[in-house]
């Protein structure tokens, strides 16, 4: 008896995952099934418009997990885990040959239902020179910022020091001011003077010297 297997594609979202060569990649797929009794999920990969290739099939029956690999794929490179609503495919140490379109499907009866599609894009690994240059630029930037902050702090401290210890200038006296500020004196003399009827009244003559300062 010849059986017919139908394929049904469910409405799902398409995502893209970008990883560097040598890193690990994880892709998730939403599934529908009776998780308590039995669920079987198959992961497939398609590259360059070629026919899809089965990678592995994970099944869960009465709390017993099992994974079957197809087409020379092995657990050393790919593993899968399935929960009640999500199946996750993990690829370790990816290479350029792992790039392609990945999706999963379930077989609840005589037909397959395919779900989320994920495109895995592999980029070149980061070169040591690029990493060293990034660390060097980061270190130079930190040193430059610290140098600028130190210079600004020193300038502020210098301004505060000069402002605190600055004294007002005392103007020096000019020669003219010195002359005007000198003490001067005048001599006053008292002599004989005539009193009434022509007689002379003699006063002792005293000489007084008065000092005063003029500015």
Can you offer a commentary on this structure?
InterPro entries: Ig-like_dom, Ig-like_dom_sf, Ig-like_fold, Ig_sub, Ig_sub2, Ig_V-set, TCR_complex_component. This protein is 20% helix and 43% strand. Strands 1, 2, 4, 5, 6, 9 and 10 form a seven-stranded mixed β-sheet that branches. Strands 3-8-7 form a three-stranded antiparallel β-sheet, with no helix packed on it. It folds into two domains: 118 residues, Immunoglobulin-like, CATH 2.60.40.10; 37 residues, no CATH class. A hairpin with a 3-residue loop joins β7 and β8. The protein has two helices and 14 strands, in the order ββββββββββααββββ. The relative contact order is 0.15. It is elongated, with a radius of gyration of 53 Å. The N and C termini lie far apart (138 Å). With 215 residues, it is α+β, with helices and mostly antiparallel strands. The longest helix is centred in the last third of the chain and has 38 residues.
């Amino acid at each position: 008896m010849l059986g017919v297997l139908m394929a049904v594609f469910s409405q799902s979202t398409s995502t893209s995952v970008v990883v560097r060569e040598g890193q690990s990649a994880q892709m998730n797929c939403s599934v529908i099934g009776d998780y308590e009794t039995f669920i079987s999920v198959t992961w497939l990969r398609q590259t360059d418009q070629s026919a899809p290739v089965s990678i592995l099939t994970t099944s869960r029956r009465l709390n017993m997990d099992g994974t079957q690999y197809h087409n020379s794929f092995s657990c050393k490179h790919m593993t899968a885990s399935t929960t009640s609503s999500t199946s996750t495919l993990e690829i370790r140490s990816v290479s350029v040959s792992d790039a392609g379109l990945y999706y999963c499907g379930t077989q609840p009866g005589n037909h397959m239902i395919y779900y989320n599609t994920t495109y895995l894009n592999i980029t070149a690994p980061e070169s040591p020179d690029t990493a060293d240059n990034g660390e060097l630029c980061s270190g130079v930037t930190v040193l430059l910022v610290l140098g600028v902050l130190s210079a600004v702090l020193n300038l502020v401290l210098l301004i505060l020091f000069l402002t605190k210890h600055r004294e007002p200038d005392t103007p020096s006296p000019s020669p003219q001011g010195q002359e005007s500020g000198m003490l001067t004196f005048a001599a006053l003399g008292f002599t004989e003077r005539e009193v009434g009827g022509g007689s002379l009244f003699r006063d002792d003559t005293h000489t007084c010297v008065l000092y005063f300062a003029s500015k």
